[in-house]
Amino acid sequence: MTITYDDALRDRIRANLTGHDRRVVSDPTKRHAAVAVVLVDSEAGEDRVDPAPVDDWIAGRPMPDDLDGRMVDVSGGAAFLLCRRASRLTSHAAQWALPGGRLDPGETVVEAALRELDEELGVRLSETTVLGLLDDYPTRSGYVITPVVVWGGGRLDPEPAPDEVVAVYRVGMHQLLREDSPRFISIPESPRPVVQVPLGNDLIHAPTGAVLLQLRWLGLEGRHDSVDGLEQPVFAWR
C-alpha cells in the first residue's frame, strides 16, 4: 500500500521530528556534512529505466539470492528522492545516496543541504520547506552527516548534474515499511550490526540506509530509536 502525500503526512512527520531529542555528534576529527531527505509525490508505475548496466554498479559486491540490484517497482504515493552517484567520482562512486555534501565555511546544515540539493539535482527550495532534522550519523570515512528533512510540495522536476549524479529516483515511502526491512548482518571487522534497507531489488547500506531507517522509525512511526550505532559495510568505509 502506498502512502498518501498530503498535509496530514507533512504535519505528522514535522510533529515527530519536533518532539524528538535529536542526537548530536561532536567530533573534531570528522568533517561536517548534510544531506537532504526530500519528500515528494509520485505515481505508481513511473519507475525510470536504469541508464547504465546494473552489473557495473554492483561492482562485484555479493547480492542475496532474492535481489538483483535493480531499483524497480518503487514509485507510488509519498516518496523521497534517491540518487545513484556517478561512477567517475573519487569517493563512494556509483553508490546510492541522498543529495548532500560538506558544509561550506559559515554554513548551517540547512543551508548546506538546500545548496547541495540545488547543485546536484537542480531543485531549489527555501528554508520554509524544512520539516526538521534527523540524528547525526558519524561515518567511517570521516564525516558527521546531518539529515535535513524537506517537504518538496509536489512532484518536483529534478535535473541531475551529470558529473555527480547518474540517476535520481522517486522511491515510495511504503518501501521503507516492507516486511523484509530492515535487515541486519554481522561482519568480522566490527561488533556492530550492519544495517541493510531493501528498496526495489537492492539493499541500501549506512549511512544512507541508517538515515532512511530513521525516516521510517521516527518520521512515520514516531519511534525514537537510535541509528548512529548501526554499522556500514566495509566497502563504504573509504
TrEMBL record:
PROSITE patterns, alphabetized: NUDIX, NUDIX_BOX
Xref: InterPro entries: CoAse, Nudix_hydrolase, NUDIX_hydrolase-like_dom_sf, NUDIX_hydrolase_CS, NUDIX_hydrolase_dom
Cross-referenced Pfam families: NUDIX
Keywords: Hydrolase, Magnesium, Manganese, Metal-binding
Protein family per UniProt: Belongs to the Nudix hydrolase family.
Cofactor(s) for this UniProt protein: Mn(2+); Mg(2+)
Keyword field contains Cell membrane: no
GO molecular function, one term: coenzyme A diphosphatase activity
UniProt-recorded name of the protein: Putative Nudix hydrolase NudL
Domain annotation Nudix hydrolase: ranges: 30-195
Organism listed in the record: Mycolicibacterium hippocampi
Keyword Hydrolase on entry: yes
Cited CDD domains: NUDIX_CoAse_Nudt7 (cd03426)
